[in-house]
Structure to design on (230 residues):
């Protein structure tokens, strides 16, 4: 299944910004639903009023990331298990959404490429985008959009003056992303209880370093509440 996806180095489309790409992904995930049925590209486009080529390029990227799957060489797409999980939490729980994205993007080719490029220090979003785009077709903003997704997925940190950097040694989120409970595990917990009184919008405005520290505190709380031997 999707054997071509594993070897391809796909970048986001240059026809839609990250917000519109997210809208396209959310549309196909909702249309695919819990049964994860295959959805035609044209249906996704008509559902959100976007051109077919923009939709097709966007879906191909998210297939490459692992949130979608295809059996028809890109003519139809369905949600993966991870994609459907993301769809369930996206509008309600920013923490879980970003951790799900982290699990996917940390395995994407772009994560290692970006972290290698940042090995000697931070650089601007545009410069890192140009490096990731090098050798690929389309406009350079494809690379910039890819950097934005890596930041959104907490693979990279955005600092001042639009600079991005690799996380510090103590900020490895891989174990956090693996142990943070899914939506079905926390049905009685409100956002205020989960995030120490902060609304989701307040959480999203935190600098990346504080965001990561908040995730650590939340995860430690769940580990403390877990029965022994669970």
């Amino acid at each position: 299944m999707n054997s071509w996806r594993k070897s391809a180095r796909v970048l986001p489309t240059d026809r839609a910004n990250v917000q519109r790409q997210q809208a396209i992904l959310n549309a196909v995930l909702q249309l695919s639903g819990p049964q994860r049925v295959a959805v035609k590209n044209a249906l996704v486009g008509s559902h959100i009023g976007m051109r077919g080529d923009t939709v097709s390029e966007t879906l191909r990227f998210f297939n490459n990331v692992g949130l979608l799957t295809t059996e028809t060489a890109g003519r139809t797409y369905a949600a993966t298990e991870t994609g459907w999980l993301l769809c369930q939490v996206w509008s309600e729980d920013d923490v879980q959404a970003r951790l799900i994205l982290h699990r996917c993007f940390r395995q994407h080719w772009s994560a290692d490429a970006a972290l290698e490029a940042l090995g000697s220090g931070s650089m601007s979003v545009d410069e890192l985008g140009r490096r990731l785009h090098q050798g690929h077709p389309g406009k350079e903003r494809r690379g910039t959009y890819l950097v934005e997704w890596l930041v959104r997925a907490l693979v990279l940190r955005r600092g001042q003056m639009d600079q991005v950097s690799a996380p510090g040694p103590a900020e490895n989120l891989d174990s956090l992303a693996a142990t943070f409970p899914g939506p079905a595990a926390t049905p009685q917990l409100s956002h205020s209880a989960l995030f120490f009184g902060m609304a989701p919008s307040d959480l999203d405005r935190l600098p990346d370093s504080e965001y990561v520290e908040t995730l650590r505190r939340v995860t430690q709380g769940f580990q403390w509440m877990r029965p022994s031997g669970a």
